[in-house]
Design goal:
heterodimer; A: about 775 residues; alpha/beta; N-(1-d-carboxylethyl)-l-norvaline Dehydrogenase, domain 2; 2-enoyl-CoA Hydratase, Chain A, domain 1; eight-stranded mixed beta sheet; seven-stranded mixed beta sheet; 33 helices; B: about 375 residues; Peroxisomal Thiolase, Chain A, domain 1; globular
């Protein structure tokens, strides 16, 4: 097929609407259809869904522009428009008759060669296409998205024996590049991969909690973080997705799986859970779940007692001994209930996942990817087995009378992953190791790191050769926090890159790009009144970032996830940005009683001054920068960051996280041709009059109760910098002078105990102090 | 007594529909085009020979951007007035277009012309309040409330004059009711000039909220102070609009068969403290009434601009005005307040109402940001 320029989604429920939003986020027009209703607005179902989508939390749309790309309609009046679409995604109710009837109608109107896919999570492809023409079957596949479609990276693709491989490849490529999904090829088996393993896992964990008498708090503590599962753990996750989903998944899987499938033996409805659902305790969307916040008791977090079925105050979970927090072997060997529970969750689940290689998935990679991206596990089942030891696992399974899966026997004690000759490999069903090959345009630092040594490295950053004359600057500290070591490494990197390489990208593969300066370190310095150190940190950061900006080679920053404070400023100082679509970038310093100290003030003003849409004169750029920074605005996506002003129109956006480094590298290489460093900007700033205007605005916010007394102080210092301090309208202010102003006001703020209080609160609670 | 030495009359009044800034039907109309449409219509409706006009005087509170470049001259050219007619932009914030009328009356008294088109315009959609580049004098900002926000002054007046939130809301409900009735009964249509926009002709006011109830208003959050009493419901909305009146000598009007709405009897300006600028109409009206040789009790028609319910109520109480004679067709809380255009609207409206009701004396008065009041006393012809 020749690309996808318009998509139709049929079924405007949570999944269908969410998929439509993600298609729109990719900049592709989408037609969202649902049932017809009698009345003046025959498309009210789809229209309501679109309205709901606009208010969804977390946001379904990445930008206002994206929301405008969705057109709504109903399947009676608008089905003919399907002929305009290159891809029709069916996401209606999971009833085979309804789906088959819709396909019959689609067959009459769709354009031959256009793709038709189902978002089913339970129905076999073979059944879905019964009675359809050969041409329809050739163009048909299953594309199984995860909820919410914007944020969950996994897409399971199932092709049937009749499916046209070129069409499947075309849809997969679009899903990968435009929708940003990691496509995992699944076989046409019940539940595909992620839900099959996931349901087994949740069921085992719930059963074991009841059987072993483990509280929900302890269960989540054991089966959460130490296993690399999101901190919601088991019961918290079920609360999140909806407890009522459990019996539904159970029924669907027990019906479709063979009788001897291990899941059949563990599938059960616990009376307590059925009672909870019956009483409306369906989780976070309902009255509460395994946990609830009791507002009558004054916002007390409560947990359900699995033995009595009564809510009680949530207890502090059992503490996991140090070694067992990191070492799975130690975790499953813990004495008593702790170890027994860990094993009861992990052992059977890993065995089950292993049994699916060759049945539900072609290889271990597909299963690991599915679980990591579909269930947010930090490690896939086979990576967990490697941490546990494949031999140890096999032995214990055998000892407990659990069938040892074939792939585990083939491994015979060998790991599922290894690095050989700088190349990461996985173990196949044939008993041989195979290189992990990435699709074209996917470059992972993880792979590079496995096969090479850093060019430079210290405690907080490293520099890697990522090929073709490009190096990557990686932050390596906790939360990728920025400190003096990062700045030192930048200082060393610049002459190295200048003499031996063409360009530098700022990139890493942590959970977030960077949450900003190391506040803990800053707090330590402030507590001992080490003002000189603080001044050095600010000056050092300014110098390092400006050195990057004016280096004789291009610098491209590639943010993703959180890029806050100093993490935002490194992007602002780069020649260009290639951002992952899910980038939440912002200058948030004011929230902790500070102002941007590493050049953020001037960079934002320069961006707004370049914005032709703003009126002329000395104030508009200053006022916009002030508004954005003083309210600690964080963009809700990369597209939104362009609307807010953190990113320039010319900055790039990559939808698929795995393609970010390659895209950033390509951008850097494109800039490297005949590269000239930028000319330092010169500002014409309003001085005292401008500050007076900003101060007046803040006083208004204060009167309205929208700003606190200390907000006013912090905003005042920010206003001083942005208006150019003592500048006069007729004079110019250099970037250097602005940096000096920024540093001066920053250092004045850190000496204020109210800033200290804000930082302490942020570190202790993760929430801003509104003093 | 300080009556004008020369008979000056209001010989015509017209305005554009008033619409909410930002989301209203005139948001995409340039202010100069808007004012030109009104000027053109007023010339047509009055039948005046445009060549006889001395000057076009337009008020505008933020004369920059599309309202810059001496907008009055540009509106003259846009509306195809003869090149011989002058153009001057006047700025006294909300009092701008009333000042334009006062200027014309003075020029006529001075013997410096017989006929003037006076009006005002404000697109609060396209030129923000405070302008694009607000640059207060930092020293002045420190030692006075010169730059105080208008909402804050409304709060101050409410506090100082003991105007409760309930009183403000009752006043706003009444303003909305009067305007809605006037609109429904077609009492606003004569003065309105239909405006052609890209999205179609706009010929009705758009700010009105008919059916506003005290209960609904009671649910609004304070707009300017967390602990305050002024809400969006008891303040005039940000508005786009233009207005114009024809000001001539009595002799000229007679000679040219112009419609005679009212005679300008006396005018006044008075400053007050910026913190309570809303009380400005009190001193200005007292002066103007005294100059006219009458008292508040003699007034049959009162147009007191409702910048905020709190200041309007304080002025009514202080001046001893009869609420039943005030803002008969609704005030700015309902109709809208395009800053530069309001003065000419309320003078034109007061003059028309004198003619309509057969009353003898009318007062048009308004408060002005920075601490001023302006007033015009009219007499039936």
């Amino acid at each position: 097929m020749s690309g996808v320029s318009k998509v139709c989604v049929i079924g405007a429920g949570t999944m269908g609407a969410g998929i439509a939003a993600q298609v729109a986020n990719a900049g592709v027009p989408v037609l969202l259809l649902d049932m017809v209703t009698e009345g003046p607005d025959r498309s009210v179902v789809a229209r309501k869904a679109l309205e709901k989508l606009g208010k969804a939390e977390p946001a379904a749309f990445m930008s206002k522009a994206a929301a405008k790309l969705v057109e709504v309609g109903n399947i009676e009046d608008d089905l003919a428009k399907v002929a305009e679409c290159d891809w029709v995604i069916e996401a209606i109710i999971e009833k085979i008759e309804a789906k088959q009837a819709l396909y019959e109608k689609l067959e009459a109107v769709r354009r031959p060669g256009s793709a038709v896919s189902s978002n089913t999570s339970t129905m076999p492809l073979a059944v879905l296409t019964q009675g359809r023409s050969e041409a329809f079957q050739r163009d048909f596949l299953i594309t199984h998205f995860f909820n919410p479609p914007r944020y969950m990276r996994l897409l399971e693709v199932v092709a049937g024996p009749q499916s046209d491989p070129a069409l499947v490849a075309g849809i997969s490529a679009f899903a990968d590049r435009a929708l940003g999904k990691s496509v995992v090829t699944a076989r046409d088996t019940p539940g595909f991969i992620a839900n099959r393993v996931g349901t087994f896992w949740l069921q085992s964990a719930i059963n074991a909690a009841f059987d072993l008498g483990v509280s929900v708090e302890d269960a989540d503590a054991i089966a959460g973080k130490p296993m690399g599962v999101p901190k919601t753990g088991i019961f918290g996750l079920v609360d999140l997705v909806g407890i009522d989903l459990m019996p539904y998944l159970k029924t669907s899987l027990t019906r479709s799986l063979p009788k001897d499938d291990p899941y059949q033996a563990i599938a059960k409805d616990h009376p307590l859970i059925l009672k909870m659902i019956g009483d409306g305790y369906t989780g976070r969307k309902g009255k509460g779940g395994f946990y609830r916040i009791n507002r009558e008791a004054g916002k007390v977090k409560e947990a359900i007692d699995l033995a009595t079925g009564e809510y009680r105050k949530a207890a502090k979970p059992v503490s996991i001994p140090g070694a067992a927090q990191k070492d799975l072997r130690a975790l499953v060997s813990l004495p008593g209930k702790l170890g027994a529970y860990a094993w009861a969750v992990l052992g059977p689940t890993l065995a089950y996942a292993a049994s699916l290689v060759g049945e539900a998935a072609d290889d271990v990679l597909a299963i690991d990817t599915a679980m990591k991206l579909g269930y947010n596990w930090s490690y896939g089942p086979f990576e967990l087995i490697d941490r546990l030891g494949s031999e140890a696992l096999a032995k214990r399974l055998e000892a407990e009378g659990i069938a040892v899966p074939e792939i585990l026997r083939i491994a015979a004690g060998r790991p599922f992953y290894r690095v050989e000759g700088g190349q990461r490999q996985f173990l196949g069903l044939d008993g041989d190791y195979h290189a992990i090959t990435r699709p074209e345009g996917v470059l992972l630092l993880e792979d590079i790191k496995a096969g090479s040594k850093p060019l430079l490295k210290n405690g907080s950053a490293a520099l890697w050769d990522v090929g073709d004359g490009v190096v990557a600057l990686e932050f390596t500290g906790k939360m990728n926090a920025l400190d003096g070591d990062v700045m030192t490494l930048i200082g060393k990197a610049i002459p190295l890159v200048a003499s031996q390489y063409k360009a530098l990208v700022v990139y890493n593969e942590g959970r977030n790009f960077s949450a900003g300066a190391n506040l803990g370190l800053a707090l330590f310095a402030l507590n001992i009144a080490a003002w000189g150190e603080v001044d050095k940190l600010v000056a050092g950061g300014q110098q390092a970032y400006k050195a990057l900006k004016y280096a004789p080679f291009p610098v491209v920053a590639a943010p993703f996830g959180l890029a806050l404070g100093g993490g935002c400023e490194v992007c602002l100082n780069a020649d260009a940005v290639q951002a992952h679509a899910e980038t939440y970038i912002g200058l948030v310093e004011c929230g902790v009683g500070l102002i941007p100290g590493w050049g953020g003030c001037g960079e934002m003003m320069q961006r707004f001054a370049e914005n032709a849409k703003l009126p002329k004169g000395p104030m508009p750029a200053v006022a916009k920068a002030f508004e954005t920074i003083s309210t600690a605005t964080v963009a809700k996506s990369a597209a939104n960051a362009k609307e807010v002003g953190y990113l320039r129109a010319s900055d790039g956006i990559t939808m698929n996280r795995d393609r970010l480094l390659a895209d950033a590298k390509a951008k850097a290489l494109a800039l490297a041709e005949g590269y000239q460093p930028p000319v330092p900007p010169v500002f014409r700033l309003p001085g005292a009059g401008g500050k007076a205007a900003l101060d007046l605005a803040v006083q208004g916010f204060r009167a309205r109760g929208l700003a606190t007394p200390y907000d006013e102080v912090v905003a005042g210092r920010l206003a001083h910098v942005l208006s150019g301090g003592e500048a006069d309208l007729v004079d110019t202010v250099t970037e250097e002078q602005l940096l000096e102003l920024e540093r001066g006001q920053f250092v004045a703020l850190v000496r204020d105990p109210r800033t200290l209080a804000r930082i302490e609160t942020m570190l202790a609670t993760g929430k801003p102090l509104r003093n | 007594m300080a009556e004008l030495s020369q008979d000056v009359v209001i010989a015509g009044y017209a305005r554009s529909p008033f619409h909410l800034a930002g989301k209203g039907a005139l948001a995409r109309t340039r202010p100069d085009d808007l004012a030109a449409a009104v000027v053109r219509a007023l010339v047509e409706r009055t039948g005046i020979d445009a060549a006889a006009l001395e000057d076009l005087v337009l008020g505008c509170a933020f004369p920059e951007g599309e309202q810059g470049f001496n907008i009055a001259r540009l509106v003259g050219l846009l509306s195809d007035l003869p090149l011989s007619v002058g153009g001057m932009t006047v700025n006294r914030f909300c009092g701008s277009s009333m000042s334009a009328i006062h200027y014309a009356a003075g020029q006529i008294a001075l013997g410096a012309g017989q006929a003037f088109l006076c009006g005002g315009v404000e697109s609060m959609s396209r030129v923000p309040m405070m302008g694009f580049n607000p640059l207060p004098n930092a020293e002045l900002a420190k030692r006075s409330a010169a730059y105080i926000g208008m909402g804050d002054t409304a709060e101050n007046v409410a506090k100082q004059y003991g105007i409760s939130r309930e009183q403000q809301e009752a006043f706003a409900v009444e303003s909305q009711r009067k305007a809605a009735e006037a609109q429904a009964e077609g009492r606003l249509s004569d003065e309105i000039v239909p405006i052609a926009t890209k999205a179609g002709v706009v010929d009705k006011d758009g700010c009105l909220r008919p059916g506003t109830t005290a209960e609904a208003l009671a649910g609004l959050k304070p707009a300017f102070s967390a602990t305050g009493s002024v809400t969006a419901g008891t303040a005039s909305p940000l508005t786009d609009g233009a207005s114009a009146v024809l000001v001539t000598s009595g002799t000229f009007a007679g000679a040219h068969n112009l419609p005679l709405l009212a005679r300008v009897k006396a005018v006044a300006i008075s400053g007050c403290s910026p913190e309570i600028m809303g009380i400005g109409p009190v001193a200005a009206s007292r002066k103007a009434l005294e100059r006219a040789g009458i008292t508040a009790a003699d007034l049959d028609v009162i147009e007191l601009n409702e910048a905020f319910a709190s200041q309007a109520l304080a002025c009514i109480a202080d001046l001893g005005l009869d609420p039943s004679k005030m803002n008969i067709d609704g005030g700015a809380i309902a109709i809208g307040h395009p800053l530069g255009a309001t003065g000419a609207r309320i003078v034109g409206k007061a003059a028309s109402l004198l003619a309509r009701t057969g009353g003898r004396y009318a007062l048009a008065t308004q408060c002005i940001g920075g601490g001023q009041g302006i007033a015009t006393v009219l007499e039936a012809v």
